[in-house]
Amino acid sequence: MFEPDEYLFTKLAFYFKRRNLKKQENIANSVNLSDLKSRLTIFARAITGESIEIFEAEREGGYKNNNFFLPVAFSDFPTADENISFYLFRIVYLSVQKNLDLNWNDNREHELLESQQKAAETSSRVLESMFEQFPVTKKYFESFIQFYKSKTKDAQQADYTFIYGKWMRNNLEDDGDVLKNFTDAVKKGDEDQPKTTIKSKAVEEIISVQVDVKQQEDAVLQHQFEKVETAEEFGGNFKDFDGDDDLEDHANALDELNMKYTVRVDDTAHSVYQADFMENTTVSESAEYDSSGYHITYDEWDYSKRVYKNDFCKVYPKSQLKSNISYYKRTILKNNSTLIGLRKMLTTVNNKYQFQRRQTQGEEFDIDAITDLYVDVHSGHTPSEKIYLSKRKKEKDLSILLLLDISLSSDGYAAGNRVIDVEKEVSILFGELLNEFNIDFSIDCFYSKTRNHSTYITIKDFDEDWNKAKFKVGAVEPSGYTRIGAALRHSGAMLDKRDTKNKWVILISDGKPNDYDKYEGKYGVNDVKQALRELNERQINSYALAIEAQAKYYLPQMFGQNHYQILTTPVEMLKSLVLLFEKIRHQS
Q1: Tens digit of each residue's pLDDT (9 = 90 or more) over 539-551
Q2: Range with top average pLDDT, 202-211, 244-253, 543-552
Q3: What is the separation, in whole angstroms, between the first and last Cα of the chain?
Q4: What are the structural domains of the chain?
Q5: What is the rounded distance in angstroms from the CA atom of residue 513 to the CA atom of residue 55?
Q6: Which of 75, 215, 415, 480 can bridge 30 by disulfide, Cβ–Cβ 3.0-4.6 Å?
C-alpha cells in the first residue's frame, strides 16, 4: 500500500511522464516505424535477397543476422518526408553493411560506446560501396551530415550515431547447455492461465537464463530502496516465483526495465509482458528425459546443418473429452444469418455439374479422346471406346483436416477479437457446412512444451459423428507453446490413413513458431517449411489462415505466396474457408 504523500507523488510523476510522451507522439513531422514497416521489409529483402525481419531498436539500431533494428519513431529532421527518407537510407546502409559482414562475430559483450565507435570507423567502407551501388543515397547522406553539423557549435563534436547506427552481435551460438528444468506441469493442460498482458518497449537482444533450482533456494536476501516504483532487472540471484498477478501495478516501472536478460522457467505465467522479438540464439535445447504415456516420435529439421534430428519430438495424441454445449448454441445463434448465406453459396458449388471426360457414353464427344481414337485406328492399335463427355456430379473424394493452434498466444486479441474464440467459432460453423455436404473432415488442435511433450488433441475424428463432436469445440482453451512442425507431421500421418485422393491440412494460427526450448526464429520457420515440403511430397495440400497482423512478415517464408491469408474476424475467416473449399471442390 502507498502512503498518501507517496501516492500523490506517484500520480504527479506519471502524469508528467504521460504528457511528455503525448507531446512526442503529436510532433507534426514525426514518422513511426510501424507505419512503414511493411514497405521497409519488402525493400530490405529486395536489396539483400534474404528474409529480413525489422524490429524496433532501443535507440539508433543496427543489424544482427537477418534482423534489422530501426528507431521506433524518428522526428529529427524538419519534415515528415525527410524523416521517411532517413528510414529508407538506413535500410540501404544496413543492407550494404550486412553484405560486407561488418559486425561483431563473437560471443563477447561489447559496450554501447565501443559498438558505436566501430560503426563510425567502418562507415567509410559502407558508404563507398553504397554510393557505388545506389548513387542517389549520396545526396541524402550529405544532407544528413549537414543537418547534424548544424545542431552543434563544434562540427567535430557532431553526433552521427543515428546515421551509422551501431555494431551488434552476429551468429551467436548457444553454449551447449540443455534445459533440464522441465516438469510435468504442462501435462495438466490449462488449469492456470495468464490474466494480464502488457506490450514491452523495444528490445534488441534477449538472453534467457535457465533457472537453477538449487540457486533459487539459496538466494541471498536483498533489500531494494524503492523509487517511485521499481521493477528489478536480473542480477544473478533468484527469488521465489509465487505466481501472483500484479503486472498492472508495475506497468509504469516496466517502462524503465531492460529486457535483455530474462529467466526461462516452466512455472505457469499469470501475467505476460510481451516483447516482439524473433531470435533463438541464446535458447538451449531440451535434455532428453524418460517419457511416460503413449507417444509418437517425429523428426525435426535442423536448417543450419541441413539434416534431420531423428525421433527428436514426442507427440502425445489425445481426444477432447470435455464439452461446452452453451458455447456451440451461442455461436450458431450469433452467426445464423452468415451461416444461411454461406450454406446457399456452398449448395450451388456442391451441386454443380461438371464434365467427366473419356466416358463410354454421354451427351457430347470428347475431342481429345476422338483424336486419340483416330491415331490408334491409323496406327493399327485397338482404339478405346471412352470417347464421350458426360455432365454429372463428381463424387466427393476429399478429406480436410482443420488444425487449430491453441497455444497461449491464442489468448491474445486481434482487431478486438479473442484469437481462440475466432478459431473455435470458425471451426463450429465450418464443421456445420462440411457435415451437411457429407465431406470427410477432422478438427484437431495442438500445443507444446519443449520437444519432449507436444500435445495433439483430436476434437472431431474423421469417423466421428459431428452431432456429438460439435459440443466439444467450445471447451478448448489456450495452453503451452507453438511447435507447428511436429503438429503438421502428425496431421500428415492422420491423413495418410484416409483413402481419399484429395487431402488438405488447413492451419489456423498466429503463424509464429516458438517453444520453451530452441524452437524460435529462423530455426522454427525452417522446420515448418520442411514439414510442409514433406506433406507436399505425399500429395497432401496445405493452407494457412493467420489471425495476427505480424504474420505477414513470416508466413510467406513458410507457406509461400497464395497459400495463406491473414484475417481477424470469424466472418472474414469463414468466408475465406468457404472460398477455399470452392477452390478445392473444383480441383477434386
Answers
A1: 999 999 988 767 7
A2: 543-552
A3: 67
A4: 23-164 (no CATH), 176-251+260-271 (no CATH), 318-350+395-587 (3.40.50.410), 354-392 (no CATH)
A5: 17
A6: 75
Q: What is the pLDDT of residues 318-367, one digit of tens each?
A: 999 999 999 999 999 998 888 888 887 777 655 555 556 677 666 777 78
Cβ proximity of 441 and 431 under 8 Å? yes
- Alpha helices by DSSP H, listed for 282-418, are 325-334, 336-350, 367-378
DSSP per residue over 125-157, as a string?
Answer: HHHHHHHHH-THHHHHHHHHHHHHHHTSSSGGG
CA 405 to chain centre: 11
Asked if residue 557 lies in contact with residue 51, where contact means CB atoms within 8 angstroms, the answer is yes
- How far, CA to CA in Å, does 194 sit from each of 271, 457, 480? 5, 21, 11
Q: Cα separations (Å) of 555 from 9, 308, 508, 513, 544?
A: 47, 22, 12, 10, 8
Helices (H), 218-358: 251-254, 325-334, 336-350
Give 118-129 pLDDT, tens digit per residue.
999 999 999 999
Average pLDDT on 7-22 reads 59
Residue appearing with cell numbers 475466432: 422
Structural contact between residues 204 and 55, judged by C-beta atoms closer than 8 angstroms:
yes
Retrieve residue 364's grid coordinates. 457430347
Percent of the chain as helix, strand, coil, to the nearest 5: 40, 20, 40
Q: How many whole angstroms separate alpha carbon 402 and alpha carbon 444?
A: 6
Q: What's phi and psi for 456, nearest 5 deg?
A: -120, 110
Q: Mean pLDDT over all residues of the chain? A: 79
CA distances from 258 to 128, 233, 235 (A): 36, 7, 12
Those residues with Cβ within 8 angstroms of residue 227's Cβ, 6 or more apart along the chain or in another chain? none
Residue 85, pLDDT > 80, answer yes
